[in-house]
Amino acid sequence: MNRPAAEDDGECYGGALAWSGNYRIVFEKDEWAHLNVLSGVNPFLSEYKLQPGEWLETPKMAFTYSKHGLGQLSRNFHDWGRKYALVDGFNVRPVVLNSWEGAYFDFDETTLTQMMDNAAKIGVEMFVLDDGWFGNKYPRNADNAGLGDWQTNEKKLPHGIDFLIDHAKSLGIGFGIWMEPEMVNPKSVLAETHPEWIVQSPGRDKITLRNQLLLDLSNPEVCEFIWNTVDSLLTRHPGISYVKWDANRHVEQVGSTFLPDDKQTHFWISYTNGLYGIYEKVRAKYPKLMMQVCASGGGRLDYGLLKYHQEFWASDNTDPLKRLFIQYSSNLLYPPNATAAHVSTSPNHQTGRITPLKFRFDVAMTGRLGLELQPSQLTSDEYEFARTAIANYKNFVRPLIAGGDLYRIYSPYNEANWASQMYVAKGREQAVLFAFSTGTHQRNVYPKLGLKGLDADRKYKIEEINLTGASSFWGNGQVFSGEFLMKYGIEVQISRPFDSAVFKLTEIR
Question: Of 327, 349, 376, 396, most Cβ neighbours within 10 A?
Fold first, then answer.
């Protein structure tokens, strides 16, 4: 086919490099018009010398092929990823409230327990305490101190972590915690005690990013320290069932005080393998622990690290409009049920954009639903909507995202300012359809959505959920054939910026 592959037709190949360090992917077309793809460790400053008897395993590359366009290519990756490259790949994930945008560093025990109380009432299943819970000599009250000193802050949390865990347990919800074990603030006991553990170029000033530096994971002693830190936290507090593992900066001023001069170029590979070694230990001792890979969002989204995690944080940008693009791109290769997608406040803290709560929920429900706000700031109407939407997600949407197939109808990148996708059960007996208006449209101009993945010979009842008023579809509550829904489609009356609609489809026999 002499044109680019489309969503539902055309031959295409896809690949994902399973490597969390520096990488390079080269595409070269030879004189016979054959495309050659070379991928792996970036060779820049990465000369690696092997001694007799030593060995080095190069990164793996996952490839797939589709003769039915990009949609099938993505579904191939999702099935493979859930089965082979993701922890608990087909299991449903809990609805999470993360404390970050709701409290930032400014919290105490009352703040957190009240957040848990309100979250539990609307159906949240996991509370995650984000940054700011640690450090005593250098308390973590901002991002400029305390990182690396993983002791509970006694002023903020005088009764300790177990007090919070017990409170969560009394509400019937899980408890999780944020860590950034690879990083250190210059203003910390760890940096004062072990300055030689910091990645650095001798004789040069250490350049910080987000007021932090990196620990040298090419050094086995440092890796052992990080492992003991994580192990000690989880052993002392066995009620922790979730860890958000963050890494908020990249590597600069590459240099190791551990590696000899003639092996400084081993750093890039040794650091990554050191990180993998820590994760191997964590997974071996805590196989049921839920973990999220995070690196200022999706900075480490790859199948090399994803195999140790149940989910990933795609971006620190929680603006729902931006998230439509971010999640669309992430889910080209990575499973939607592993995509943590949170409802944040309005105006959004990153962009200042004002959006309806329904739009924010509808976008977040296309992945692993969570919240990133202060529940007490919701109005009574918003509170009730949140409770209903979370129930809809848990009762119907979540199982389809966990085990179903993703079909994209409108890419958010299209110029018509629509976005739409659906998830269909493997047996095609159920589906959920999402539709979004991402811009301004002329009056009475609505998207016509040709559904996908259904059985043409079956009949489906279509019902709109997450309603805040009248339904956007004239046939709401009625039964249509799969053939009609796929060949003719439905017109959804959404046209203003940030209008949205969600429909559940159930086979009628």
Answer: 327
